[in-house]
Design brief:
Strand content: 35-45%
Oligomer: single chain
Largest sheet: 22 strands, antiparallel, barrel
Mean pLDDT: 89
Distance between the termini: 16 Å
Shape: globular
Radius of gyration: 30 Å
Low-confidence stretches: 1-32
Number of helices: 10
Structural class: mainly beta
Number of strands: 43
Length: 958
């Protein structure tokens, strides 16, 4: 751990909860080093003189954890930050990173990521090695983010990669981890064969009276054969994780270098998914002998391969029980045996396209045979930054930073000729089945920032100011081609073999291509003033332009002001228990130019490319016939604006044992981008435009108490938490919302549930009861009876707590995270605890929960589970019957290990060695019955669960 991280200044570590220990250091030297806040654009400020709301996450919080996406380390790292993985698929780009709530309805809501002073245009970070990260800084208020103008509205995360140190010796280190990835646990109580037969009997099923067996007969046959399949064990498999990293750093008087090489491999819980990554990095710093000229470069190279499910990229199959294996995990009937069919041809010959009686589980099983449905992505990424600064005089300097981010992806997907789905979709005129698509995407982003800076001091007055210009350009291109018809004798996925001649119309290939150039331009200035270390003021002014908009809306201006009072520096604080007491306040504005959110892994600058222009379209008409239409543009569209006020207090007291921070904020978003209702006389009922306002108000608190640090014994506890209240203030809608949905309505929070409220079971007949608008109950609610639940899928409370402990080289650290005030539609439970299924009887077609064994009957009239033959099960889709509390407390990380001392290693060429065992996501306390309550989604259907992971690691320094 860096020595600087031991400094106890204004709340440096109170909120981070790092699972780490500092090396023994001379305390006199430590006090001479001041902690700095990294603001980006090569701008830093000492924590003492900072007036911004920010949190710093140290490198130790990132290292030695099995997280392919480095942003996962932000889970629980700071108050007001909600980081959740939207998919547990290895290497997935699906995540939500909310800072101080959701500030947009349809636009991008994730924080801006800045890597080595260059804002990133990507939305996936699987090719960035966590062990290369030195620090992360979370910037939250307008004083910190206004400098990023039209991209800073959702907060900013500044990432700094590791660098060598001047006048330091050669240092080599190896970090390795290996472990096991396991599926998470659920609480759906799936029925086994005997329990399923009991449900069938309670439902009223009996043996068939014809020669054709019905589901009850099949269940009896399975029971007689001793079949009792747990399909979760068939579809989810334990998988290995391993990573190996070598880093070399050194520094002379004028040049430093940091070089690293890494390899990581993670198997997926679903057998056909995995992720492999190779990385290399070279960071170099150089300075002239007079130290007037400084140059630095950071180059990162990576190659990754990711095998993924089609569900990950195709929303069309997420509700498809025949093509999505994530549904088969829960739906497979227990009395059906796995591995019955040797291949897709045998399966097709037997069932054809009849998916009744649970046959769909065999189709899903066939999909999980590696090679049957290839879907993998090879990605090459190159990130390069070159910065230079020249100090003309003691007070004046100029700087330039050029950044290049290049990503090339090659996706291979299709259906192998022997796979069931290829055979089932074969026409009578086709001799060959199967298809393969190859798609290539190239994304080149160029960012350049040139600036001039002044820093001067006169007596107790200090001023620094910077003026800058930023230019950002994106060149994007895609090509695609699809081969129809594959020869099973020679086909190998992605190799180009097995393609049949396309002289037959059935095998004609299809091709496609697209190209896009996007860009932004900005001018901005920032100034800071300090008087005697007691009082400080700062201001930011930025002028932005975006290619998305036209006319007067192409440019916008953003600004911020901030001030601080270091109360601890006042004379009246002498002898006080406070060593740090700082009051700060700020107000400012930001913009969100990404008014249409990009898909996972996509560049957000490439969306909303034609919203200001009218376009001819080709809509699908009656009978799937192509029609002609007109898409209305809106030249008045502009970016969303966010104004934010913040008041904060940083404090350290009790001989530096207790550290903390407290913030209150109010964010207001105007010009929300959404559909604006218009008269239907124009041929449409809505046009995209700016419509409405929204506020996010909240409170944040972070505390850390260093209880003991004496005689080799260390023990610290930490906690942080935040509350955010979201409300839509103004919003024009076209009609009332439909029951059973999340809504966007003025006077309510974003995505608030609007449903029929469930009132219990009718004791006389077992039907479901629902509350009416006037407080009564009914079995058949009307639209006017729907009510708001005052809750949404977005958490109101979030935070973390934990401890760090050590004793003579041994250490034990733990991190817990929590989210509260969340409700989501458990549509997996809707399939498992609803005997009618999706409009047809589910009994006999898919597995069910044993909850139904306690259903209402004449002899069990006090049950809270409705009659299996209730006549109004259909209302559950529009009610809160299956809307469940998704609040949780999770054991996020536990690490136990031993740090070998220098004395133990004195006869070896090793300067340090650390051995540890680490566990991630090992247990969750929650009422949510699914695999993971954390993803911020309205429902949990087809969400790839985040795994539990157990790893053994070692770090060796040479």
């Amino acid at each position: 751990m860096n020595v600087k991280l031991r400094v106890l200044t204004a709340g440096v570590l109170f909120f981070t909860g790092q699972l780490a220990f500092a090396q023994k250091t001379d305390t006199t030297k430590v006090k001479e080093i001041e902690e700095v806040v990294v603001l980006g654009y090569s701008k830093t400020i000492t924590k003492k003189t900072s007036a911004v709301a920010s949190n710093t996450v140290s490198d130790v919080f990132l290292e030695n954890r099995p997280n392919p996406n480095v942003l996962t380390a932000l889970q629980g790292s700071a108050p007001g930050v909600v980081m959740s993985g939207g998919s547990g698929s290895p290497g997935s780009a699906k995540f939500s990173l909310l800072i101080r709530g959701t500030s947009s309805i349809n636009g991008n809501t994730d924080a801006l990521i800045v890597i080595d002073d260059v804002p990133s245009n990507a939305s996936e970070y699987r090719n960035l090695n966590p062990n290369d990260i030195e620090s992360m800084t979370v910037l939250k208020d307008a004083a910190a983010t206004a400098i990023y103008g039209n991209r800073g509205a959702n907060g900013v995360v500044v990432i700094r990669t590791k660098r060598g140190k001047f006048n330091s010796a050669l240092k080599v280190s190896y970090t390795g981890m290996t472990g096991l990835s396991l599926r998470p646990l659920d609480k759906y109580n799936l029925a086994n064969t005997n329990e399923y037969l009991d449900i069938m009997r309670a439902y009223g099923l009996t043996p068939s009276t014809t020669a054709t067996p019905n589901p009850y007969d099949l269940a009896l046959a399975g029971q007689a054969a001793g079949v009792d399949t747990d399909w979760k064990k068939v579809f989810f498999k334990p998988e290995m994780f391993q990573s190996h990293d070598i880093a070399v750093s050194s520094g002379g008087a004028n040049v430093t270098s940091y070089t690293s090489f890494g390899y990581m491999e993670q198997g997926g819980a679903v057998p056909t998914t995995d992720f492999k990554r190779f990385t290399a990095r070279s960071n170099i710093q150089a300075r002239s002998k007079d130290e007037k000229l400084t140059v630095n470069s950071q180059i990162g190279l990576a190659f990754s391969r990711r095998n993924e499910l089609f569900e990950e990229t195709s929303s069309a199959i997420r509700n498809n029980s025949v093509q999505n294996p994530l549904l088969g995990v829960l739906q497979g009937l227990p009395y059906l045996a796995p591995g019955v069919y040797a291949n897709g041809q045998e399966l097709f010959n037997t069932i054809k396209t009849n998916f009744n009686n649970g046959n769909n589980i065999y189709v899903l099983e066939n999909l999980l045979t590696r090679g049957n449905l290839p879907n993998f992505v090879d990605q090459i990424s190159i990130t390069g930054n070159l910065g230079a600064s020249y100090q003309f005089t003691k007070n004046f300097s100029i700087n330039n930073k050029l950044g290049i981010d290049y990503r090339q992806g090659e996706r291979i997907s299709g259906r192998a000729p022997g796979a069931y789905l290829a055979l089932a979709t074969q026409t009578s005129t086709q001799k060959f089945t199967g298809s393969e698509s190859q798609a290539t995407t190239r994304d080149l982003s160029i960012n350049n920032v040139v600036s001039a800076s002044y820093n001067g001091q006169a007596g107790e007055h200090t001023v620094d100011a910077t003026v800058s210009m930023e230019y950002n350009k994106v060149h994007y291109r895609t090509t695609s081609r699809t081969q129809n018809g594959l020869d099973p004798r020679t086909y190998i996925p992605g190799s180009g073999t097995g393609y049949v001649p396309f002289d037959n119309p059935n095998y004609l290939p299809s091709v496609g291509a697209s190209r896009l150039v996007a860009g932004t331009l900005a001018y901005f200035a920032n100034a800071n003033y300090d008087y005697a270390g007691k009082y400080g003021f700062s201001g930011t002014l930025r002028r932005d332009a975006s290619y998305r908009f036209v006319g007067d809306n192409q440019w916008a201006t953003y600004w911020a002001v901030a001030g601080r009072w270091n109360i601890d520096q006042e004379n009246f604080m002498e002898g006080s228990t406070f060593s740090v007491l700082k009051l700060r306040a700020s107000y400012g504005t930001n913009g969100n130019q990404n008014i249409i959110a990009a898909g996972a892994g996509s560049n957000p600058l490439l969306t909303a490319t034609s919203i200001v222009r009218d376009q001819y379209t080709s809509p699908i008409g009656y009978g799937n016939a192509l029609g002609s239409g007109f898409g209305y543009g809106n030249p008045r569209v502009q970016w969303e604006d966010v104004a934010q006020a913040n008041i904060g207090l940083d404090f350290t007291l009790l001989s530096n044992k207790l550290e903390g921070t407290f913030d209150i904020y109010n964010k207001r978003t105007t010009n929300l981008f959404s559909t604006f209702p218009v008269s239907g006389v124009a041929g449409t009922y809505g046009i995209n435009g700016n419509n409405g306002t929204m506020t996010n108000k909240g409170v944040e608190l972070g505390l850390r108490y260093n209880i003991l640090n004496k005689d080799g014994v260390k023990f610290s506890i930490f906690a942080n938490g935040a509350y955010n209240q979201n409300k839509i203030n103004e919003f024009i809608t076209n009609g009332d919302p439909a029951p059973g949905t999340t809504t966007t309505i003025a006077g309510h929070q974003l995505s608030e549930w609007y449903v029929y409220k469930y009132a219990g079971v009718n004791k006389s007949n077992g039907n479901l009861l629902f509350y009416t608008k006037d407080g009564g109950v009914t079995e058949s609610p009307d639209v006017i009876d729907a009510q708001y639940l005052e809750v949404s899928p977005i958490p109101k409370y979030a935070g973390s707590f934990g401890f760090e402990s050590g004793y003579k080289g041994f250490f034990l650290d733990a991190l817990f995270t929590f989210q509260q005030g969340i409700k989501k539609f458990d549509n997996a439970l809707y399939w498992l605890a609803n005997p009618e299924g999706l409009g047809s009887n589910a009994v006999g077609s898919a597995n069910l929960s044993t909850d139904l064994l306690d259903a209402w009957s004449q002899s069990n009239s006090n049950s809270d589970v409705p009659n299996l033959r209730a006549t109004n099960w259909g209302f559950t889709a529009d009610s809160d019957y299956f809307i469940k509390d998704a609040s949780f407390v999770k054991v996020r990380s536990v690490t136990v290990g031993y740090q070998l001392t220098r004395d133990m290693l004195r006869n070896l060429p090793i300067t340090g060695m650390r051995v540890y065992v680490q566990a991630e996501n090992i247990y969750t306390w929650t009422k949510w019955r699914g695999f993971d309550p954390e993803p911020i989604t309205g429902s949990n259907l087809s969400v790839y669960p985040n795994p539990r992971m157990f790893t053994l690691g070692v770090k060796v320094d040479f």
